[in-house]
Amino acid sequence: MSGATSPEAPRGTPVDARTLATARVQAPSLGLLFFGLLGLLTPIIFLLDPFDRLPRDVSEVEPPAATAPESPGGETGEDGAGAKEGGSTPAEGGQLGDEVPTWLRPILHGLSIIACLVIIVGAWQMRQMKHLKLARIACLLAMLPVQMTFCLSFVFGFWAGVIVLRDDVAEYFES
Question: pTM for this one?
Answer without folding.
Answer: 0.67
